[in-house]
Design brief:
Elements: H1 12-15, H2 39-54, H3 59-68, H4 81-99
Length: about 100
C-alpha cells in the first residue's frame, strides 16, 4: 500500500510550484522508467531527464518535496531513485551517529 502520510496537505500554495516545472509539458515516460528497463537505456533516459531538471526554475522545491515524502519512483529535482535513497540513507546514518 502506498504511504501517503508524508504528502503535503491539499492546499494549492503547497503545490503551485509544480506549474513552473521544466517538465510540465514533457511526457512522464521521460521521468519514470518502464517495467524492466535496465543498463544503458535506463541510464540514458535518466540523464536526459536530469538535463531537463538542470534547467528547471523549481528544481530545489521539487528535490525537497521528493526527499521529504520519500518519493519511491522517477526523476525528481534532478535526482534518481538511487540518488534519493543514497541521500536519505546518509541522513539516517548521520542521525544515528549523532544519537550515539
Amino acid at each position: 500500500m502506498t504511504e501517503i502520510s508524508r504528502l503535503p496537505k491539499p492546499l494549492a500554495e503547497l503545490w503551485e510550484w509544480q506549474f513552473e516545472g521544466a517538465c510540465q509539458d514533457l511526457p512522464s515516460e521521460m521521468f519514470f522508467h518502464p517495467e524492466g528497463e535496465r543498463g544503458p537505456r535506463r541510464r540514458n533516459r535518466e540523464n536526459a531527464a536530469k538535463a531537463v531538471c538542470a534547467t528547471c526554475p523549481v528544481i530545489q522545491q521539487c528535490r525537497d518535496q521528493a526527499l521529504s515524502i520519500q518519493e519511491p519512483y522517477g526523476i525528481w529535482g534532478g535526482l534518481s531513485e538511487d540518488d534519493r535513497t543514497m541521500i536519505l540513507d546518509r541522513k539516517i546514518s548521520a542521525s544515528i551517529s549523532e544519537a550515539s
